[in-house]
Amino acid sequence: MKLKYLLNFLFIICCLFATGNTFAQTTDIIQINGVTMTADSLRAVPDVTIQVKNKNRGVESEYTGVFSIVCYKGDTLEFSCIGFRPKEFAVSKDLKGQYFSLIQLMVQDTFYLPETIIRPLPSKQGFDYAFQHWRIPNDQYELGRKNTDAYLLRVLAYTLPHDGHESQSRVLRQQANDAVYYGQQKPMNILNPLAWGEFFEAWKRGDFRKHSSPYGDY
């Protein structure tokens, strides 16, 4: 019986120590709310990575530079962003409370790129050969110009088949035209003076001439 009471007493003591450690660890948690700004003009710096050092945890500042992160007292926060020097902030263990406000100033960094030397071709013959035979890929502007070329769009309009929406619209238009003269004979334009006038105007313009291209003149 004494051994049983002793084991129960030791179990209670261990539970008290575990509860005390958990409570102490919970009180060490702190939430840091802050904003990242430039050091010279105090403008917001977006997309700054805020990471807890040596731990796989972190956040990213918003468009206005605002961020919020939870860590332990005594941790170190690392601030990094392209175009700015990395910064570190050590969270003090003596901070009171569980909330802390921070304004982190970021200093712009300067990158020095190696020089690029552009030299001409060694001879006139080499330039002529390159001008005639080299195939330089098109840039984005040239690709956009070709994709919006009027003649190309005209060819595609004549050659590509109708999609489902266009076929449906065509059928509906045909049904609407047939419904206008439902139950009666459609009029014949052979006796319509306006139709004859349009025919003569088209004849004068040369609309009925044969073109060298099946898509008309361009």
Concise synopsis of the structure shown:
The protein is of the alpha+beta class and 218 residues long. It has two domains: 2-106, Immunoglobulin-like (Sandwich); 136-205, no CATH class. The chain is built from six helices and seven strands; from the N terminus they run H-E-E-E-E-E-E-E-H-H-H-H-H.
What does the model show?
There is one protein chain. Helices cover 39% and strands 21% of the residues. It has 218 residues and is of the alpha+beta class. Mean pLDDT is 81; it is low at 16-24 and 214-218.
- Uncertain segments are 16-24, 214-218
What is the count of distinct domains?
2
| Structural class category | alpha+beta
What distance separates the N and C termini? 109 Å
Give me some keywords for this one.
about 220 residues, Immunoglobulin-like, 2 domains, three-stranded mixed sheet, 7 strands, elongated, disordered C terminus
